[in-house]
Design brief:
It is a single chain. By secondary structure, the protein is α/β, with parallel strands linked by helices. It has a single domain (about 25-365), classed as L-arginine/glycine Amidinotransferase, Chain A (5-stranded Propeller), CATH 3.75.10. The chain is about 25% helix and about 25% strand. A four-stranded mixed β-sheet has the order 3-2-1-18. β15 (about 310) and β16 (about 315-320) form a beta hairpin. It is globular, with a radius of gyration of 19 Å. It starts with about 25 loop residues before the first strand and ends with a strand.
């Protein structure tokens, strides 16, 4: 373990870097939903959606699903035998944010970054309390895999960043510069730390994430790399929708930016579903606790087709709106001609505050 890396022993200085999601994987990590104050009806509908996502990803890579002990038998019963169920306690099921960011080395080694996690804002806007089990997940996965773990005090969630694997990272100011994350760090500090721990050399800053995104604007819900020099961006032509101004602002920045290799980015628009809102029947199935974010009838959800997972042979996308599902799938088929696009009914995941990318974390091929 590398508990206190110096300037000469940072992951980047040692030759490690974070690969792009579209690079080959050895595995995908997920967690099992169960908390009744976030997932309706004891998480049973959400569990069915998680099973469908895991099955689709497992077509071309190993899938690990971490489960609390009291749900182990239930999860093992619901998940197919080829999906590996492991006891890995968590406070909730957002592996993208509570899990490790994996790194690879040219000599074939795998390592991870162990970010600090405070449940998307700690006691200043965080989504639940406590988050002690979530903080131990990265340590446990490092032990299970026997890989080096680079510890950093930087508060950051995996959904807040997206990389092209060639030196470029996209993130949002809304999230990384939020005072409930790293109040004493500015852009230059963050860029230096991201370079040290991820091996990137260029950061493209988008001002805001999707409208009403409770993660304080995670970039993986707004835009992502689909190939070197190519980005997918959630989009709406409805100028009366608050999302329009956010997406237009992001489009202008992305089209005028260059990546770490000097390329101008090509931006592909994905239609926004909805807008989508929580129904009365959906809100009524969630337990109300003071330690978690309430789910209120009529609340707008930050639905986005950009929140997909790029697997080895598949792209697993959310089905969210019959009016736009097919169009979004057709666009993704054009962007990923070598992969099969699998659309999963993902409203139950969205009701919990995120989507398919949020519940997954790729383990790159070392």
């Amino acid at each position: 373990m590398n508990d206190n890396p110096t300037a000469t022993s940072t992951p980047a200085a040692l030759g490690f870097s974070m690969p792009a999601e579209f690079a080959p994987h050895d595995a995908c990590w997920m967690l099992w939903p169960q908390r009744p104050d976030n997932w309706r009806y004891g998480a049973k509908p959400a569990q069915a959606a998680f099973v469908a996502v895991a099955e689709a990803i497992a077509e071309s890579e190993t899938v690990f699903v971490g489960v609390n002990d009291d749900q182990y038998e239930n999860a093992r019963h619901q998940l197919p035998a080829h999906i590996r169920v492991v006891e890995l306690s968590s406070n909730d099921a957002w592996m993208r944010d509570v899990g490790p960011t994996f790194l690879t080395h040219p000599d074939g080694r795998l390592a991870m970054v162990d970010w600090e996690f405070n449940a998307w804002g700690g006691l200043n806007g965080g989504l639940y309390f406590p988050w002690d089990k979530d903080r131990r997940i990265r340590t446990k996965i490092a032990e299970m895999l026997g890989i080096e773990r680079f510890i950093t005090p930087l508060v950051l969630e995996g959904g807040a960043i997206h990389v092209d694997g060639e030196g470029t990272l996209i993130t949002t100011e809304e999230c990384l510069l939020n005072p409930n994350r790293n109040p004493n760090l500015g852009k230059a500090d963050l860029e230096r730390l991201l370079g040290d721990f991820l091996g990137i050399s260029k950061v493209i800053w988008i001002p805001r994430g999707c409208y009403q995104d409770e993660t304080d604007g995670h970039v993986d819900n707004l835009c992502c790399f689909v190939a070197p020099g190519e980005v997918a961006l959630t989009w709406t032509d409805d100028t009366s929708d608050p999302q329009h101004a956010i997406s237009r602002e992001a489009l202008e920045i992305l089209e005028n930016a260059s990546d770490a290799r000097g390329r101008t980015l090509r931006v592909h628009k994905l239609p926004q579903p909805g807008p989508l809102h929580i129904a009365d029947s959906e809100a009524s199935g969630v337990d109300r606790l003071s330690s978690s974010r309430p789910r209120q009838p009529g609340d707008r959800m930050a639905g986005s087709y950009v929140n997909f997972y790029i697997g080895n042979a598949v792209v697993v996308m959310p089905k969210l709106d019959p009016a736009h599902d097919d169009a979004a799938k057709a666009i993704l088929e054009g962007l990923f001609p070598g992969r099969r696009i699998v659309a999963i009914d993902a409203r139950e995941i969205l009701l919990g505050g995120g989507n398919i990318h949020c519940i997954t974390q790729q383990q790159p091929r070392a």
